[in-house]
Amino acid sequence: MKIGFVGLGIMGKPMAKNLLKAGYDLTVYDLNSDAVAEVVACGAAAGKSIKDVAAIADLLITMVPNSPQVKQVLLEEGGAIETLREGAVVIDCSSINPIASREVAAELAKKNIEMLDAPVSGGEPKAIDGTLAFMVGGKQEVFDRFKPVLEKMGSSVVLCGDIGAGNVTKLCNQIVVAVNIAGLAEALTLGQQAGVAPEKIFEAIKGGLAGSTVMNAKAPMMMDQNFKPGFRINLHIKDLNNVVDAAGTVNSPIPLTQSVLEMMKILRRDGNATCDHSALLKYYEKLTGETLHR
After folding, report:
1. Nearest alpha carbon to residue 90 among 40, 21, 36, 163
2. pLDDT of 143-169, one tens digit each?
3. Cα-Cα-Cα-Cα dihedral of 293, 212, 171, 227, to 10°?
4. CA distance 57 to 46
């Protein structure tokens, strides 16, 4: 099976490397020539264009920022739809609006091309070590066929429903992550202001009901003032804006999401757009004038 991979950013690049480690025949493309060169050095072939990659692919995997980029890569002039063969399959791992996933899948289906939407959770560390969580939407038979490929990049691969269900589930994931990070920042800030070391708070509560993967990953970053991105504020804003759109479609209340989204927008305005989303702490530091520390 020949796999094409378009989008070698923070997540896509290590995902592509894990496919190479698993022995797959991989051809890659990205606008960033340095990223392409790095993956080629690991054994991939370099495509000259999106159409070039799509032309050889039995399976095309895309990992790009948002709905407009997915449509550009797959459907617009110069896009993959022009050269993908009948019977090929597209797996879009981008985190986008589920409505867009359904629109793209419908266009691909006109050329007898199946699609799965398969956004991921876990950030750069889990992309590197191959333990991402894949939330997948699409047909059962297509999922069953390509689940082994996804398992080379992730430790959890779950079919959530028909096309679009993967991105609905990812939006739910992003709500939980965002609210969890904000709550963690609020709690550690309160604790330090009340005279208890944040490190002791973290040590004491991480094994109880409050403990979470988010806490284990983000509390040390907050205490170390380390906001090197595993997942950037601006990307989380994009996801939460998609939550707002999806919630509006089904008339679902999202007051907590709206609150955290406003915090993130303030951080973006203050120049923190490319910081890790653990930089939600900076919102509280701005309010208190106090820096969190160990």
Report:
1. 163
2. 999 999 999 999 999 999 999 999 999
3. 20
4. 13
Which residue is listed with tokens 């991921």? 120
* Distance between CA atoms of residues 263 and 2, nearest Å: 44
Phi, psi angle pair for 50, to nearest 5°: -60, -45
**Encoded amino acid at 260, one letter:** V
User: CA torsion sign, 292 to 282 to 13 to 35?
Assistant: negative
Identify whether 126 is a catalytic site residue: no
With contact defined as beta carbons under 8 Å apart, do 96 and 167 qualify? yes
Sign of CA dihedral 220, 8, 60, 63: positive
DSSP letters spanning 112-137: T-EEEE--EESHHHHHHHT-EEEEEE
- Left (φ > 0), alpha (ψ -120 to 50) or beta: where does 138 sit? left
* Interior angle at CA 257, CA 172 and CA 260, nearest 5: 125
User: What is the token pair recorded at 28?
Assistant: 């890659």
Tokens of residue 84, six digits:
């993908």
Distances, alpha carbon 264 to alpha carbons 64, 71, 133, in Å: 21, 26, 24
Q: Are strands 59-62 and 25-29 parallel, antiparallel or unpaired?
A: unpaired
Residue 47 has pLDDT above 90, yes or no: yes
Strands 114-117 and 120-121: unpaired
Q: Which of 13, 17, 170, 238 is catalytic?
A: 170
CB 265 within 8 A of CB 257: no
The amino acid present at 188, given as its one-letter code, is L
Long-range (24+ apart) CB contacts under 8 A made by 147-152 are: 149/3, 149/19, 149/24, 149/59, 149/91, 150/91, 150/118, 152/18, 152/19, 152/21, 152/22, 152/24
Tell me, what's the pLDDT at 230?
84
